[in-house]
Amino acid sequence: MADQGEGPPPIDFWHVTEEACGQAFSCGEKDIDKYFAREAWKAHSRGSHRITCASLKTAKAPAGFASYACATEVASKLPGKYHLFGGGDRFPCLQLVWLGVHRPMQGQKIGKRLVGSVIATFAEVGYKIGLPHLVLVPISEEVKPFYHSLGFEDYDKGSKMFLPLQAALEVFPQE
């Protein structure tokens, strides 16, 4: 997949490889860096997470990555009505688990474009199989304005964020 945005450098999107996880990568958040180096390839290869990487067209080293997975959420924590599992209190959703951009690449809209690729996937998959929300747990209060700018809303007393499927479909309509 290729992206030809104006302003920011042209980047390619691709699924993580074992080789990519062995390359130097540091976003400055210890837990995210550790996940990418030690767990991302394993999680992707066993199918528990899908990892999308971004690289500059002129390089093959990852400039950033997004990790997402199917999850469930407690229905009472979000507004609306949901199709609950087996009469329980949970519903299915897609979760953005990790997002990291290599420090030298930060500030070039790579994170925004990675989240955009996850939102596009969510719009396609959520529409087909009925996932009502893309959810995430922000790593810190400092990153919340970034997610708010992309349409995410706070829930669970502000400790988590969500993007409704309808918001994703407005940006990435499905037929």
- CATH fold naming: Aminopeptidase
What fraction of residues sit in β-strands? 25-35%
Gap from first CA to last CA: 20 Å
Average pLDDT for all residues = 89
Please tell me how large the radius of gyration is: 16 Å
What is the highest CATH level, the class?
Alpha Beta
- Helix and strand succession? EEHHHEEEHEHEEH
InterPro entries: Acyl_CoA_acyltransferase, GNAT_dom
Domain N-acetyltransferase: 40-152
Organism: Sphingobium yanoikuyae
Keywords: Acyltransferase, Repressor, Toxin-antitoxin system, Transferase
Explain what this protein looks like in three dimensions.
The protein is an alpha+beta fold and 175 residues long. Helices cover 30% and strands 28% of the residues. The chain has helices spanning 18-21, 30-38, 40-46, 110-129, 144-149, 165-171, and strands spanning 2-3, 11-15, 50-56, 64-74, 90-101, 133-136, 153-155, 160-164. It has an 8-stranded mixed sheet, sandwiched between helices. The longest helix is centred in the C-terminal third of the chain and has 20 residues, at 110-129.
Short description:
The protein is of the alpha+beta class and 175 residues long.
